[in-house]
Amino acid sequence: MAENEILFDEEIDITDVVCPVTFVKAKVALEELDDGQVIAVRMNDGEPVQNVPRSIKEEGHQILKLADNEDGTYTLYVRKVEEA
Amino acid sequence: MADEINYAELKKGGFMKQKQKGFGSLRLKVIGGNLTAENIKVISEVAEKYGRGYVHMTSRQGVEIPFINVEQLAEVKEALAKGGVQTGVCGPRVRTVTACQGSEICPSGCIDTYTLAKELDERYFGRELPHKFKFGVTGCQNNCLKAEENDVGIKGGLSLEYKDDLCFSCGVCIKACRTGALSLVDGKVILDSSKCNNCGRCVKSCPANAWIGTPGYIVSFGGTFGNFIYQGEELVPIIEDKETLFRVTDAAIEYFEENAKPGERFRKTIERLGADGLKEKVRKAYEGGEE
């Protein structure tokens, strides 16, 4: 697949916290966005990358991509979906 | 109180003799760990009036009211019945069917555990057998209800189907998978079925609904977690329908009934006779054929 760069409006680093604050931090950041805006969430390998994407999906937001930063972290690109 | 008290008979009705003469702890019937508010109210009233004002929660989601006077047992049972509460069982028979909250409540759940627990209870509860026999139902691989410690354990899982036209190769499922069963090859996800444990984390995490999960039952046999500890083993593949599931559980319980010595747990029977006989019977039931 072509390496399409994803444009984003905001970014947040959750590598400095552990579960469940990882998700909470991401959720709070998402709340501050407008509908349709994209955020890049940088998270650690292991438990965060196993669980945070799913939790964000369950909140109803749209996941665009999970990129491996090849430094033990991943970046998840999420488009905010405002509740109907 | 001139007559002899038949404690074995009382035990059958969930009344267990205490150290304190004339008193027993009364086990109540609970299915899948759920009690209604009405149930709890009457239990509370009975514990206050006939017991010592407290209950004991058992390790298998049961509730017992200690310090029930054996002379008042009939009265206590009647009072409980008014709030829809029945007594449980002890001794050599099918015990409380335990369950987690399952897919109706829990985001991780793959099967409706409570409905299944009620069905199992209706089918087997109290059935007389050579020794105690326990069923436990857990909704997913997180295994909150510890399926494999039961004589028959049932665990929810998902069988997978991949819709590659929906997949946009985001990579989320590959990281969500805990068994390393998924990999990304040429922009598409490849499943190594030999590594998949049917946990369904790919289905739950996929933002494109490219993984379709069909719920199923992963059954383990011969678990025990008391004096002797053994993790029940899976003898058949994941089961997708209840008809097959009940054929398989019927087969297991029949095998135990037919082959166990009195006072012998399922695991010990399997060890004494070897697993082949049980495997064959369960396999046949799984395949659907009459014997």
What does this structure look like?
The complex is a heterodimer of chains A (about 80) and B (about 290). The termini of chain A are far apart. In chain A, a hairpin with a 4-residue loop joins β3 and β4. In chain A, α1 packs across α2. Chain A has a single domain, classed as Translation Initiation Factor IF3. Chain A is about 25% helix and about 30% strand. A 4-stranded mixed sheet of chain A has the order 1-2-4-3, with helices on one face. Chain A is built from 2 helices and 4 strands. With about 80 residues, chain A is α+β, with helices and mostly antiparallel strands. Chain B is of the alpha+beta class. Chain B folds into 2 domains: about 80 residues, Alpha-Beta Plaits (2-Layer Sandwich), CATH 3.30.70; about 130 residues, Sulfite Reductase Hemoprotein, domain 1 (2-Layer Sandwich), CATH 3.30.413. Helix content of chain B is about 30%, strand content about 20%. Chain B has a 5-stranded mixed sheet with strand order 5-6-7-10-13. In chain B, α2 runs antiparallel to α3 and α7 runs antiparallel to α9. Chain B is globular. Classes of the chains: A alpha+beta (about 80), B alpha+beta (about 290). Chains A and B meet through α2 and β3 of A and α5 and α6 of B.
| Overall geometric form of chain A | globular
| Annotated CATH homologous superfamily of chain A | TusA-like domain
Instruction: From the 3D structure, determine the CATH topology of the largest domain in chain B.
Output: Sulfite Reductase Hemoprotein, domain 1
Order of helices and strands of chain B: HEEHEEHEHEEHEEHEEEEHHH
CATH superfamily of the largest domain in chain B: Sulfite Reductase Hemoprotein, domain 1
- Give the overall pLDDT of chain A as a whole number: 92
The main sheet of chain A comes to: 4 strands, mixed
- Quick one: how many beta strands of chain B? 13
CATH C-level category of the largest domain in chain B: Alpha Beta
